[in-house]
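Task 17 of the worksheet. Students: predict the tertiary structure of the chain below and write it out as structure tokens. Keep your answer in the requested format; marks are given for formatting as well as content.
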Amino acid sequence: MAQDNRWFRMLLVAGGVALLVALAAIAAHGNLIVGPAVILAFLFWACACLAHPKLRAVAFTVWVFAFVSAAMFYPAAFGKWFGADLKILIVPLIQIIMFGMGTTMSLRDFERVLTTPWAVLVGMVLQFGIMPLAGFGLATTMGFEPEIAAGIILIGSVPGGVASNVMTFLARGDVALSITMTSCSTLMSPVMTPLLMKVLAGRLVPIDFWEMLLSILNMVIVPIVAGLAANKILYHRSAWLQRSAPLLAITVAAVLAAVALAAASPQEFALPKIWTQSLALIWSGLIIGFLLIAAVTLAKWFMHVLLASKANWMDQALPLLSMMAICFIIAIITARSRQELLTVGLKLMVVVVLHNTTGYVLGYWGARLLRLNETAARTVAIEVGLQNGGMASGLAINVLQSSSAALAPAVFGPWMNISGSMLATWWHHRPVKDGSGSPSA
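Model answer:
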């Protein structure tokens, strides 16, 4: 513990020194030094947060600031690599994040729908009611250009984010209900998100309902289903899943399936045009899904069979991978929208704070008015306030074809982690007083 505190203090001081260097460089018009100094300050502070047990929850947000700073000072670094536009990485990175979410899920997560249907129903109504309408109201009254306004509506129309489960735990909420709400809203999103966008944002930008539905299936649902399969491989106690031969066989079969899909094309099948076009839109999700299943199975063979390790390495590796993927996605978007962000950044930040706060407040009191108890109301508030920013970013870039529409999700993501941590900490110090914590009133 003393060693950790020493590292925390050293990194905190190093970040402070880097910031002072940046301020001195600004005063002396030494522009070449400002960028590296600011980036280093955030990197040191992100590492300091990781070294402090109570600050680890906000480390992700500080990492985001480091990547955003890098993108703002050096946008070309997140533009093209070797002639390839980095925006092509956004969908695969989101698919990896969603696969990681799938590995933490199981069919048991949906049992809550049967045991406490009213709490889940209330959660879904508030999830897809409050945030889309609040986004629409804020976007249309604040005078943003159509694409930025559509992005604000989009971040309100996507399902809840995965961070909500951790925040609910910290807030003394109902974690089982939170997981069920996240799972249900995610599975509903292929229909609800395009529908809400068509109704609320259709006059601002062109919305293709079918294309958006298939894009969500490709980015979110297919990788989650692959993650569910990987969950069985990783955690099932069957003896045959602990041996080399079956694990290597699954790895080879998954790789061959991915190669076969990559070599083929939906157009080769004798299917109606609408089906071949639909298959083409989910093709990459299927390829990535099989490759990730292969990677996870091979990793299990290497760690559990070859090295005989009992450590729960996947629960540590996937969150870290997801965190870095989200940071990189935000940096890619920031680099493309640098000028717009400099122009509307402050106003957009105000709107994001209002949007997020509206989700917490109306989510909580809506749940209370609909006869959910304190524990469930805290859970619903966090689920409603925290959105799947990665999914919104992917839809903005790949369906709406607009980096401006991706601005709101890019700003919303870091802020909701800050506000969510603050709210969860505040609730954590205020124990629930209304009984057992059952979601029903």
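Marker's comment: The chain has 17 helices and two strands. The chain has two domains: 1-78, 83-428.
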